[in-house]
Here is the input.
Amino acid sequence: MNRAGLVLAGLLLALGTHSLWACCAVSKSDSAVVNADQSVLIIWNPQTKTQHFVRQANFKSDTPDVGFLVPSPSQPTLAEANGKVFETLAFFTKPEIKKVKRGKSLNGFGGAGGGGFGGVEVIEQKRVAGYDATVLKADSAEALLDWLKQNGYHYSPAVSEWAKPYLEQKWFFTALKVAPKEAGAKPGNITLQAPALRISFTTDKPLFPYREPATESLNTLGVKSRTLRTFFLSDHRYTGQLGAGETWTGKTVWANQLAPPQIKNILDHLKLPFKEAPPKAWLTEFSDDWDYNTAKSDLTFVPDARNEKLARAPKIVYID
Here is the structure.
C-alpha cells in the first residue's frame, strides 16, 4: 500500500438521476452543491496499520439528496456510527472554566495557543447508516466512467482528474447514495447533514484527502467559508502536513492523552471493541478554516516531535 487514507467525492441522487461532481460534493447538471462545515474523526493504530474514518459533513445545496464516492487504499468495512461521538469529543476538548473575581488580574490564565462490469468489479453492496453503498474496483478511469454512466451518474472531467492518482494506485471506491427513505428536504438553498458513517481499512499511513476539483457552485450558493474540525486518535500527538510545498492552514487546538474510560466512550459510539484503540491513546484536535481553493496534495498525519499537552484558552467567568 503506497498511502493511507480516504478521499471523499460527492454523488447526488435526484429524480432517479445521479451526478458525480467533485471531491466531496455533487449535483445533477442543473443543481449546485458544495461541502460546508465538517467534523472528522480518524483513529489510527500504527501497530495494526488500521485506520477508522468517521465523517459528519454538512452540505450547501439547492437539492436535498447527496452521497459520496470514497476511495480507500484497501477494501473497506462499512458500519453505522453514532454522530454523538462528535459531541463527546467536543466535551473532552472544551476549554476549562476559570472563575475570576472582578478587578483581579488575569495573569496566569492565558491558554496555550495554538460483481464485474467492463473493467469494474463490484465487491459488495449493502444499506448502512442511511446509505445504499457499493464497494468497487476499477481498472481505469474509462472503466469507472462507464460504470458511473451505466448507473446514472455524470462523471465530469474535473472529477476524472481528481480520481486519477487513486486509480493509478488501484484503490477501492465506495459509492454511497442517500437511501430514498432518508431524503425528504424540499429543494432550495438548504443545508444538509449527512449521517455519520465509519469506514475502516488497512493502510500504511494515515491521510485525509484534501484535494477537491474546481466547482462553479460557490457563486451559485453564495458560499464564502467553512470549517474543518478534525479529531485524531493515535499513540502520540500528531500534526498534519501537505505535500508539494504547501502550508496547511489547520491549527492544533488541543492535545492530551486520554484515560481508558474516555477511549471506551469514543469506541462505543463507533461500535468498536477496545482492542481497536491505539496504545496509550492521545487525542489531537485540529481546527482548519478550509478555503475552497483546489489543494495540490492530500493531508497526511505524522507524529509531532513535541508530544506535549495543549489546551484551549480557559473561559473566564467573572464573579463578585
Q: What stands out?
A: The first strand starts at residue 9 and ends at 14. Helices lie at 85-92, 141-150, 157-168, 217-221, 260-269.
